[in-house]
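tool=predict chain=A
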Amino acid sequence: MWYNDLYRRHLLDMHIEDWNDDFLSQFSPKDYVCNLKKANINYAMIYLQSHAGLCYFPTKSGTVHRLFEKKPDLIKKTIELCRENGIRVIGYYSLVYNTREHDKHPDWRLKGSDGLSNRERAGELEKSALAFTSAKAGRYGHVCPSNMDYRRFTFEQIDEMLDYFDIDALFFDMPFWPHTCYCDSCQKLFAERYGQDKSMPKEPVSELIEFKAYAMGNFIKAVTDHVKSRRPDMPVEHNFASSVAGDTFNGCAEEVLAQCDYVGGDLYGDLYNHAFACKFYKNATENPPFEQMFSRCKPALRMHTLTKTYDEMKTAMASTMAHHGATLVIDAIDPIGTMDSRVYDQVGKIFEFQMGYEPYFTGDMVEETGLYYGLRSRLPGKGVTSLTACAQAGRALSRAHIPFGVTGCFHDLTLYRIIAAPMLSSLESKDNARITAYVENGGILYLSGCGNSELVKALTGNRFIENSIERNLYVAPKPGFESIFSGFTAKYPIPFEESAPIVEPGANTQVIATLTFPYTKPDDIRFAAIHSDPPGVPTDIPAVTVNSYGKGKVIWSALPFENMPYEEHRQAFLNLLHFFGKPDYFFSSDAPVNVDITAFRNENSVTVNLVVMDEEAITRPALPFTVKVRCKAKQVLLLPEKTPVDFKIEGGYTVFTTRKTDIFDMYAILV
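tool=predict ok
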């Protein structure tokens, strides 16, 4: 595809109103392109319309921003100037978020169970909503994707954009539900799908979650199909950020993924969440590279004039580089239409640094351990979800320098020696057969929680009874297994602050740890220790079990060791993954825990990427350390200069010592 080697991307956020004549009045296509060239951008996302619902082109179906009534071809000239300078262009369009059409069409509105939209309530939001901050929610008008008139309007807008602009691709933002909609269109669609006697529930039950994913996916497919009917060759991208941000209730899942020619999204977590998303996007995308968006503002666009430091920006971009992804830098335009050129000086230096490495963004990433991420297992109101547990598990694996990737219903499970599937819900049961087959054919599977009790019972025989009312619980190792649990014992068990599933063990289940309860129940005014709930009531209730299944093995934990932020829990999690023996991983290292390592195999080489995961404004370089890779090198080179590096061969492994690593380095091992 023409976009496969476009790794330096940009978006200028232009959700600007038009009540003030100064707004966007100073926007200059020449200055815009000058800044992009300074930043070494080769793929630009340009607004054709915004969340406000204002169009930046002559439209008969919608509302033109007042500036573009006076200068109708301003964006068209901008796109033409980009093309003249070798910059490809993807057009931006906002779905669902459209304040003008919300205000013009009361019957199009996304309505709560009280019949009102968020904008009508002037700021009240459901707790599960993704939509920005509740104090400002009234700024956003949401229209319903189930409404056929809104759908026809969207098609008209797409036709107008494709007729007017010469663009290379289209990007559609906001393919998720900001909250549950109870408008007539949604009620009708729900009844058609589940029966005329069924009304939409008010709580996030599984039926409602499934419906929202179905309805959003149906709309997004219709949008993609319409674009392809006009331009079969045109790539379409839908913002897939909501598959990692927020919860399952937002409806952004595999149905949206299926409509993306390539995957990307704007995310605002820490560096380890960033790296987790890179691994997820890399395996989810149909066509490479995936696109990782990040805001130049710190921590996000709401801090309009606060820019990430050079090191902060370079570290985020380096993490994307280490996964061979495309970085899209999001800048925010000044309301009057100007841009801070200093941002582009900084971005340009980082992208100039990246350009030397781009020829080496090839090969297959080494992923020997897989994290099964359940897209539908991010249930609202749950403290621990598949997302939170997978992200924390990724942190543990990264700190231990274990080669891993992110898998799920969208990816091949047979690629992995070991799979950890944390905190899956029953909504993931449609993939139970594939997971079961993976184990049956010799895979090793770690499961936590009992949300998918059907899968747990099938693989272990453990039968779910109920969830404990206690949340201050302990896992007590059985004699002989203390070392697995970081040295904790039956007398001094490892603590958790989560409710646990109570299960009856299967006939062939080996229980290696049990639950211990505190002395008193949560509603008991009595206590043993005034500041805490120490362990006091040992039980035989299984906390961790192991089983054989077919040719494979299963480790099940009632409580999510992988989700805990403490080193003791992380180490116990890793020990459980290696309960049946630690594999000889493709690479290992004595690097500091904050160095993230990835490796890619090519026909005649292996590239090793190192990223110092430092959250500080000024990064502290990592002192030299050793890297061991399972291959026999003819030469080791420090890229991109191709500086030879000393190495030795030890038992089929190439061993070399790095230089001091300042944010990012890449080494090539020629074999």
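Residues 123-135 have pLDDT under 50 and may be disordered. The CA atoms of residues 297 and 307 lie 5 Å apart.
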